Amino acid sequence: MSKLIKCVAAFIITGAVAFTANAQMIERTSQGFLDPGIVIPAGAEVFYMSGKGNHAWGEGCMTREEREAKGDACQPGDMYEQGKAIFESFKTQLEEAGWSLSDVVMLRIYGVPGEDGSVDSAGFNRAYREYFGEESTSGNTNLPSRTFVGIHSLVVPGWLVEVEARAIRMPK
Amino acid sequence: MSKIFKITITAFAAMTIAANAQSVIKRNDEGTNFYSTIEVPAHADQLFVSGKGPSAVNPDAPRAERTYGDTATQARSTFNSIKDAVEKAGWSMSDIVMVRVYLVADPAMGKMDFSGFNSAYQEFFGTEENPNKPVRAVVEISGLAVPGWLVEIDVRAARMPASN
C-alpha cells in the first residue's frame, strides 16, 4: 500500500513538473511600433480570423443591396476610419470567443491606393496605434508583428484596406 | 488500496475527458464561403503549403505560349494542385483552416473575377465531400510570378493528432 502511495505521489509530482514546464510564456518585445519577432512556445493555441474590411458602413448602408441603391450616399470612410472599424470588429470578435486583442501576434495589412493614387499608410497607422502599443486607447499595449503591402484592389468597392489577424496564446 | 486505485482511475478518466474536450478545432460564425474565426487548440499538427498557381491548359506548348484559362479554370486547377499536395502529405482538404487568395484582373473584365473564383472555390469547400470551410482573405494584386497566372492560393491546415 505504501508503495502504491509512493507511486501515485511520484506520478503527481512528475505531472506537476511537466505542467510547470508547459506553462511557458509567449516572448514579446512590446516596445516601439511593431514587434520584430515573437517567440511562440510549443503547446500554444491559435485563433485564425478571416480577412476583414470595414463592415461598419452605418445605418441604411449595411447590406450590399442598400449600398447599391444609395450609391454615393454610402461611404466606408477614409483609411483611418476603416482601420478603426476593422480593429474594433477584431476586438469584439476576439472577446466574444474569450480571447483578447493582446493575444494578436500577426497582422497582414493590404492597402489600396486612394483617389490621390497613394496608399494612406499614415492614416491606417493612426488607427493601428489606438489599438496596439504604448499609445493605445483600447487597453492593449502589446504589439504584433506585421506586414503592410500595397495591392491593386479589394473585393468591396470603396475598401481602402483589408486586414488579416492571427492570435496565439498559451492554454489557460 | 482499492479505494486509492478507484480515485486514481477516476482522476485519470476526468483528466482524459477534460483534455479531449479542448482538443477540437472550433469554427465560429459561419458564412456562405468561410468562417469568421477558427480556434485551433494547443498541440495541433500544422501543415504549411506553398502558394500554388494553376497548371497550363496546354502544358506541352513552349513556356512562352502556355495559357491557363479564365479565373474559374485557374482556381479549379490550383485547388486540385493543393488537394494533391495536401493528400500526398497524408492530410485532407477538410483539414484546411485558412485560404489566402491573390487574384489578378481578368483581362476581359478589367478587374478581378471574384464570382468566377467563388464558383471554383465552392467545388472544394462546403461540399458533400468536404463540408468544412476555412477562414479566408481575397485580394487583387497587379501581377504574379508566372505571366498569364490570374490566381495564386496559399493555404494552411491544422488537425488534432489522432488519439489512441
How would you characterize the overall build of this protein?
The complex is a heterodimer of chains A (172) and B (164). Chain A is of the alpha+beta class and 172 residues long. Chain A has 4 helices and 5 strands; from the N terminus they run αβααβαβββ. In chain A, strands 1-5-2-3 form a 4-stranded mixed β-sheet, with helices on one face. In chain A, helix 3 (79-96) packs parallel to helix 4. Chain A is elongated. The model of chain A is unreliable at 16-21 (pLDDT under 50). Chain B has helices spanning 2-21, 71-88, 114-121, and strands spanning 26-30, 35-40, 45-48, 96-104, 135-141, 151-159. Chain B starts with a helix and ends in a 5-residue tail after the last strand. In chain B, the strands form 2 sheets. In chain B, strands 3-6-4-5 form a 4-stranded mixed β-sheet, covered by helices on one side. In chain B, strand 4 (96-104), helix 3 and strand 5 form a beta-alpha-beta unit. The longest helix of chain B has 20 residues, at 2-21. Chain B is built from 3 helices and 6 strands. Chain B is an alpha+beta fold and 164 residues long. In chain B, helix 2 (71-88) packs parallel to helix 3 (114-121). Mean pLDDT of chain B is 90; it is low at 16-21. The interface between A and B is medium-sized, with 26 and 37 residues. Strand 1 (45-49) of chain A pairs antiparallel with strand 2 (35-40) of chain B.
